[in-house]
Amino acid sequence: MRLQWLAVFAGVVLAKDPKDRAGTGAGRRAADAHAAAAAADVDVLPSATAQTAALFFSVDGNSPQPRGSLVFDPHQAKHSAKLEAPVPVDKALLAVRGRDSRYTLHARIGSGSDAQELSASVPLCMLQSAKFTEQITLHVDIHGKPFHLDYLVKAQECIPDVELSKVTNFKTSAHVGRLVDAPRPRLEQPVDPMDAATKPPEQSTSLSRS
């Protein structure tokens, strides 16, 4: 009887230990966080049809500088892309320039003789006015091949003396634009020239003054 009571008492003590309670307290929160992180890692893993575009930037036609890589899947339903290994804002881009100075983004897909390069540009002063908030859209055709690059910034005009001292990184959103299939052409029935020649002239419905 005494041994049985001690066993029950030990079971109560162990049950009260927070470390041994399954599904409660910090232990469960840590497990949930770990599971969420694992799920997120699976979600961002590249698929079998994913492609990578190397990104570069240039100002006023100077030599392109690296800007990271754009990973995209032209066959994914989400139409989303991911910027990997992003590069911080170059300090030279923070300098005040004329309104005719342009920032160009280059996307290079593939390598060797099959390499393809697309580019788009905006006035540098508008990129500065947007505090380097940008949107990159890579358009692909129905076969998944990129054919156009859109580059937008969150600004409508150049704002003079914009505060950029705290800007260190781009704020980027990236997307994939897919070309919608055009409707099938409708076959028109050809007109026989002989029928057109023998067809009586149409009556005019306009009224004439007598």
Description:
- The chain has 210 residues and is an alpha+beta fold.
- It has two domains: 2-44, no CATH class; 51-178, no CATH class.
- The chain is 22% helix and 29% strand.
- The chain has four helices and eight strands, in the order ααβββββαβββα.
- The protein has helices spanning 2-16, 25-44, 124-129, 193-198, and strands at 51-59, 65-72, 81-84, 102-109, 116-123, 133-140, 146-153, 171-178.
- The strands form two sheets. The protein has a five-stranded antiparallel beta sheet. Strands 7-6-8 form a three-stranded mixed beta sheet, with no helix packed on it.
- A hairpin with a 5-residue loop joins β1 (51-59) and β2 (65-72).
- It is globular, with a radius of gyration of 32 Å.
- The termini are far apart.
- Mean pLDDT is 76; it is low at 1-45 and 204-210.
Task: Write a brief caption for the model.
This protein is 22% helix and 29% strand.
How far from one another are the termini?
A: 128 Å
| Unreliable spans | 1-45, 204-210
- The gyration radius over C-alpha positions equals 32 Å
- Helix fraction? 10-25%
Could you say which overall geometry the principal axes of the C-alpha atoms support? Answer: globular
Proportion of beta-strand residues: 25-35%
Mean pLDDT: 76
Largest sheet: 5 strands, antiparallel
Biased composition (Polar residues): 201-210
Protein name: ER membrane protein complex subunit 10
Organism: Polyrhizophydium stewartii
Region (Disordered): 181-210
Set down the secondary structure blueprint.
Elements: H1 2-16, H2 25-44, E1 51-59, E2 65-72, E3 81-84, E4 102-109, E5 116-123, H3 124-129, E6 133-140, E7 146-153, E8 171-178, H4 193-198
Signal peptide: 1-15
Region (Disordered): 181-210
Keywords: Signal
